[in-house]
Write a structure and sequence with these properties.
The chain is an alpha+beta fold. Helices cover about 40% and strands about 30% of the residues. The protein folds into two domains: about 35 residues, no CATH class; about 200 residues, Aminopeptidase (3-Layer(aba) Sandwich). The chain is built from seven helices and eight strands. It has an eight-stranded mixed sheet, with helices on both faces. Helix 2 packs across helix 3.
Length: about 240
């Protein structure tokens, strides 16, 4: 994340929550940068996956949007109000322009969370290149009042099922090592841990250092049906 983007986010946070909350937020962010700035990288082989149908409660729905024109005014306002409206609007335009899809999970027609996917390339410089049928999952968010209700799991499971049906080859995702809630959610899906990585950007160039990384042989071993079935058995949505 660039310095200007970080400043913009904290300015927006300050205008909404005040000085004390912003200082506390900045302290948490600093600790993450200094002591927990590694990213957990995950992968999921989609061909041959025996993905069970995702039973989404009747009061909820998942919608896919491929362009800004498909995004209704109400949904657009809800998404941009979650964080920095100016930055959110810019990101939405840039991501749709690159061919990304926006997935919305709703509860009682209210946006509870969202996530983005992009096939064939990544939204920004990544840890490795993507194949034409590889898909990146990125920038997932669940509104605070909907957390603890398996929203992230439901959305991720639905996306993987859809991508598999469309013929995608492999999905990749990453999350901060400190984000145990999201890591736990990923564990209940067919996603598997690829490794732990630390990256930093200097003058527009991203440098990557793998702390741990699975070999090709290890990737084959972790793709067994027993492990996939065990993960899917564990996964249950909270209604």
């Amino acid at each position: 994340m660039s310095i200007s983007t970080s400043i913009s986010r904290f300015t927006a946070y300050y205008s909404r929550h005040g000085f004390r909350a912003t200082v506390q937020r900045a302290g948490v962010a600093l600790k993450r940068v200094l002591f927990a700035n590694r990213m957990v990288v995950l992968y999921c082989d989609l061909p041959g996956q025996s993905l069970r149908p995702v039973n989404i409660p009747s009061s909820m729905s998942v919608d896919r949007r491929r362009s800004e024109g498909e995004l209704g005014h109400t949904d657009f306002q809800e998404i941009t109000s979650f964080w920095n409206p100016k930055l959110a609007r810019r990101n939405i335009k840039e991501r749709f322009a690159k061919g990304a899809s926006l997935w919305l999970i709703k509860s009682e027609d209210k946006v509870a969370g969202y996530g983005w996917t992009l096939q064939g390339r990544t939204i920004a410089e990544y840890y490795f290149p993507m194949g034409p049928k590889d898909v990146q999952l990125f920038d997932f968010y669940v509104s605070p009042k909907f957390r603890g209700r398996a929203m992230h799991w439901l959305l991720t499971a639905h996306i993987l099922q859809t991508l598999a049906a469309e013929g995608a080859a492999r999905a990749f995702a990453d999350t901060g090592e400190w984000n145990q809630a999201q890591i736990s959610s990923f564990k209940m899906t067919p996603f598997r841990r690829l490794g732990l990585v630390r990256s930093f950007t200097i003058f527009g160039h991203t440098f990557v250092s793998w702390v741990e990384k699975k070999t090709a042989e290890q990737l084959e071993l972790t793709n067994g049906a027993k492990e996939r079935d065990r993960a899917m058995t564990m996964a249950r949505p909270h209604e």
